[in-house]
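Deviations from the work plan: none for this task. Representative record:
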Amino acid sequence: MKYADMAPPPRSEHLWRYTPWHWMHPSDIEIIPDALPIRFEAQEPVDMNTNICVASSSNEYARVFLHEVAKSSTIVSSSKDNELMNLYAVASGHVACSHLHFNIKHSVTILLHLSGEADWCGLHITSKIAKNLNVSFAIVNELSNTTTYLECQDWDIAQDSSVEFAGITLGGFRTKSDIRSNLNGRGANMTQAISTHGIGQRHSDHHIEIHHVEPHTTSSLSAHSACDDESHLVTTGLLTIARHANRSDAGQVFRNLLLSPKARAESLPELEVLADDVSAAHGAASAPVDENQMHYMMSRGFSPAEASSLIVEGFLTAAFGEIKNPSIIDAVRTRLTVHLECHIKR
Amino acid sequence: MSEQARDAVGDYRYGFHDPEHATIRFDKGLSEQVVRDISALKNEPEWMTEVRVKAYHHFNERPMPKWGNCSELNNIKFDDVTYFLRSSKQTEKNWDDVPEDIKNTFNRLGIPEAEQKWLGGVTAQYESEAVYHSIREDLEAQGVIFLDMDSGLKQYPDIVKTYFGTVVPYSDNKFAALNTAVWSGGSFIYVPKGVHVEMPVQAYFRINAKNMGQFERTLIIADEGSSIHYVEGCTAPTYSTDSLHSAVVELIAMKGAKIRYSTVQNWSSNVYNLVTKRGVAYENSTIEWVDGNIGSKLTMKYPSVLLRGEGAHAEVISVAYAGEGQHQDAGAKVHHLAPNTTSNILSKSISKNGGRSSYRGMLQVTPKASGCRSKIVCDALLLDEHSRSDTYPTMEVGNSTADLEHEASVSKISGDQLFYLMSRGFSEKEAMGLIVNGFFEPFTRELPMEYAVELNKLLELEMEGSIG
Amino acid sequence: MKMGEEVLRIENLHVSVEGVEILKGLTLTIHKGEIHAIMGRNGAGKSTLANVIMGHPAYEITQGSIHYMSKPLDELEVFERARAGMFLSFQYPAVIPGVQVGTFLKKSTQSVRQVELSARDFRKELKDAMGMLNMDSSFLSRYVNDGFSGGEKKRLEILQMLLLQPKLALLDETDSGLDIDALKIVAQGINMVAPLAGCLIITHYQRLLDHVKPDYVHAMIDGRIVESGGPELAVKLEEQGYEWLEQHQ
């Protein structure tokens, strides 16, 4: 499919309900803009190659678009078990866009720090994960507060492989992340934690799909959104359990913490179950800051801003409760603490 | 019933049909003229005719919804539907005056018996119009109005004009437009200030003819501090061709009033059931939807409440049972538009023999509505691996003080439960029936006893043949 | 020695669960009026024995036979066994949400006895049995085992046993987790049913046997009965454990 031949997605599709396409496009929606590649660097040497970007194998609108805008594909391959890859992605210029592919044959940990001042940034992450691996991945979005960020991710997880996924959004003006995982083999697992901090006028939209294609697959997702100022945070989910994917176990929790009268939050955790011998549960909750907590902390000398910052930190960290990889936890927590300290001082 | 007929009817116990005896029957299909003819036949005021015609044009222009079970929706052949059929010259107040064969139908459904025992009023609608109507004298003396909608429009045109279409405007959706264009029958209720109607009032809707469309319109207004419990039941015969049921229900609960609207819908599996139900709740009032969906081919129904006054409360309890070839797409919508409003939604669904049940919900809190609380619980039970359960909840929170919770789970009957019950002498069928009844208990508890018993029997019947 | 009619005869029974053999050649005969106690450590196969007699679908008989009232059991479904007079008091009774105890008991009693019970007669019978077990009538409006404490669950099991009047009563660890008062009540229930039935009590502990006097005590190790005797065997097992039996083997 070519982008020019496709009709823009209607808002009646849940994926585009709160963040229509024309908000995410860098200019006029008919245009394929000129883009610089996102610059990728690794802290320690990593097997990394850059090729010309080919068309998307998916017919999904945003993915087709990203592949037509991106000039290059960066392919990162694992080289040994227990490898820790510290990757830095920097987006600069007016429009920055890349395709990033992970070719994973070992049990590795990948930390991807995304930053930069680009006006518009597009990133499509794809992956191929071989059988029987334990992979941990974290993505920290610290783009500038003026960047519009369009992200798609596709995770294909083979038999007996397990992926821990941590995502934290601390930057961007308007962001849309469409993250899809396919549990393609028996015993495949996805443990996913996603935290978003809404400040200023940030509009941040996460769409998270998890598909249980085969039996005996497990997944858990917790998505926490702290909404402050005039921010608008959206989380839509689609969890499917295919026919015959019996003995699958899936759980999802979406939580919103509303901190300001002008903040807004949307949650749509959807569930489609076609197999009967499964355990599937999801929940969503939205609640104000607990006044008793605030009162207690202020009685111990915290200013309201400090107290609420601590509550936010606790709330956003709690999403990562099921992530076990210490490097991931450490990275996410450090970035969150730094971010909140900067935020409080502003 | 002949054996052949029995085969066609299958498990559905209300699948019999009586010979049709129309006094007026419109040709199939819909046009502006049909709409005008229906209105003229009923001697309606000019404004109603105009509303109908506007709605008709809106219906024509409005595309089919692009969500839900689109392929099934697109199967509806609007040109094959009979939009109006009159079976009796007038609405009788005395049961003896109802035409003999219609009376037979309702006797078989047990309606007159129920009226004597436990109802405050009854209206019975056959095809397009009410054939029988009664209300207890003491209620009438207190100023309670309980009429079929056509009589309501004749006798209280001002009240109807004030409220008709204010809760569900014809432009709300394609099927609300269709209903507004061709509506006939339904109930009109007004409960005066401070009057509590202690016994439930009931409406019974029966489609008898083939390819019939039933489009009743119900309007209930509970004035300040009053209360009422309205119960409706629906059945239709089993034909090989499809029928269409597209009702609109509008509820208005004034300050401090309480309306409970209970439905046990048991359509045969060839009925498209596409209903818009919505209530507006003012200050400290309560609207409760108790909604049971059994049968039909496709049901799309999301009882809604607009919590417009401070302290108003909404309660939606629904169950859905999707059997072979059936899709129950049901749910609830609650809009918290005022401060300190609260809501509870409980949805339970069972899918078996390839049936599909979907929960579709919307919970909205607008920026002005501070201090709102809501809790949603959705439980689904899948009885076999051919069936399907979906949950499509939406939460839109625009106020930071809102405290909302949504929980959903999907499960199957456990082997331990079956073994335990069978070790107590229950056959597998009986054990399944017991578990299913237990699963629906939070719903049946809310129904008048007679309905609860009936529903349990119905579910047990539905369970028959569910074991291979 | 008293000798009623034969209720249960198990011969060389081998049972597997998901391919793993749990019972490895067990033989046991129970007559009407006899109380048998089977003792053994966790994993010896005691609960498997109770479940397989009742016909749990997860257990596969690979060899040997079970006769009930002198007829082979293999073809009977679980509920047919119940209607034929077999009763199992579960170690972990299932929770049936939404189904009230009162409704459940009446329906169950009717289906086992295969008669319509008048509401009045049944109420009286129920009241007497519950009085005996020191159960409050508020039990009847609760949901079956839903939110019940361990002791409440066990009492409900015994209540059902009294109502269903079995010919064979299998009691799987009915004494576990009970305080002494509850234990006495449970024992009283068993003693009421015992003279008219064959009774098989599965337990870890000797203390129930202080209140229900067994005619036979069997020690079970690794899917077999390795030692049988009178009440004195229970005392010995409690005091000395099972090691001396293992050395025997």
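The first strand of chain C starts at residue 6 and ends at 17.
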